[in-house]
Amino acid sequence: MSDELTLTTDVMVIGGGPAATWAAINARDAGAEVILADKGYCGSSGTTAPSGTGVWYVAPDPAKRADAKASRETLGGHLADHHWMDRVLDQTYANMHRLGTEGRYPFPVDATTGEPMRTGLQGPEYMRRMRAWVQRRGVRILDHSPVLELLTDADGAVRGAAGYQRQSDRDFSITAGAVVVATGGCAFLSKALGSNVDTGDGALMAAEVGASFSGMEFANAYAIVPKGSTVTKTAYYGYATFFHGDGRIVEGAGSMKGRSVIARTLLNEKVYAQLDRADETVAAKMRLGQPNFFLQFDRRGINPFTDRFEVDLLAEGTVRGTGGIDIVDDDCWTGIPGLYAAGDVATRERICGGFTGGGSHNSAWAMSSGSFAGAAAARAARTAGRPTASAVSGAGTVGLVRRSSSAAPDEVVRAAQAQLIPFDKNYLRHADRLRPALAELDNVWAEIAGGAYGADTAGGRVRAREAAAITAVGRWIYRSALARTESRGMSKRDDHPGLDPAQHGHVRTGGLDDVWVRDASLDAVNAIDSRNLRVPA
């Protein structure tokens, strides 16, 4: 291994997707020096880069804004906050215009109005432009540089981060006045396209310094995919008819509850789909809008509009769910001095309650929360100043031991996936299935949390941290799901199918060895009796 790279800056941004790049740009706008560290290659890693995405972009017309806010309130269980929705709609509108000018994004033009069409983005071009824009602004980018732990000072303030540079084979340590964590959500390494970097690393690091989480029960998103595929574009299946193997239609699979119908059917038999509800005009628009969706079919010689193909469901966790690090003010501050959160790693309940999906609100949240967090981190850094290397220490707690251990990281990943990916556990929820799954995750955590868990190679340490993060995220999800004894938003309970007005609030959670849960709908400070949510070893 080469000598360690040591750097100092005003603001450090962890991540490389939309939230991270918008955070970097806004921190630079505020006069801060910025270093951005991405686990992959900034501009091509993450779930946005390989996909097309809609954007929650609405002109500042009162009637249109009111309709936009109302469109998902019921689906989200009426947990969204109009103050936050207004802020994000305003910021997204401004950012999309700025993306076309300063960011040089080539928006298509509406032939009838002559106006740029700003309601969607092509992910590859969007992120290519964002990387170039970040570089023009003078941000230093560290590619292929996964962060392993946050750095804190004697008072517990977050003052940088440390990690490993894969291509240079060296550790790095960066001290900073403030940090923005924008590492994306956690999809449990399910193979959903672009989610290989979304393993919950930022959530684990935030928990290690005391941050809490909100809405983790809304982390049971599953996407429809052709069997064996990684390309998730569930919206297109709104044009599909679903079939049993014998040709009978799967009743209810095309409804709002369609994925749960498909999931229940898949427990016992194969399911097939055909995009037979799209006419020629719609089909042409679909191919133009999402060419990568059709590449998988073209390679197999399948015409999805005329041929039936087998489908499956892929877990997307908090990438397409709404839960994440709780934010305590308009700056996307985590409540921990020096630490801000943006994008999928942060809770999106503020704008969409307990329901979201790919793109749209998530895209708007990424660019808006990144803007809020980056500007705020720059202000905090001006006040705090840059610490010396001797004034900080690593806050990491698990998976950093530099030797092999009895629990191999890949085995830990498989053990966690066995509880988090099957949709009869995480999607079709019932306490009788949630509790045993949680017990297994608790057992996995107990095995790796003793201080001897790690890997004898630098790359192994990265996987050890990913495995620990996936396990930790799963424990927050299931404890939150057990706490919400109703069906609201994405969190549906077979054993509690109704909506309970008394639970109209946010479920918050945190902790590592001892996971706690609080129900804010009853009392923001009174904890639910954790003994009722704890599973005996």
Describe the structure.
This protein has helices at residues 18-29, 62-70, 82-101, 123-136, 201-208, 258-266, 280-289, 291-300, 317-320, 349-352, 361-384, 409-420, 423-426, 431-448, 458-483, and strands spanning 5-14, 34-37, 52-54, 120-122, 140-142, 147-152, 158-165, 170-181, 213-214, 221-226, 241-243, 271-274, 309-316, 324-325, 339-341, 393-394, 507-510, 516-519. Strands 1, 2, 5, 6, 7, 8, 15 and 16 form an eight-stranded mixed beta sheet that branches. The radius of gyration is 22 Å and the shape is globular. The protein folds into three domains: 5-219 and 318-394, FAD/NAD(P)-binding domain; 221-316, Succinate dehydrogenase/fumarate reductase flavoprotein, catalytic domain (Flavocytochrome C3, Chain A, domain 1), CATH 3.90.700.10; 409-532, Fumarate reductase/succinate dehydrogenase flavoprotein-like, C-terminal domain (Methane Monooxygenase Hydroxylase, Chain G, domain 1). The chain is an alpha+beta fold.
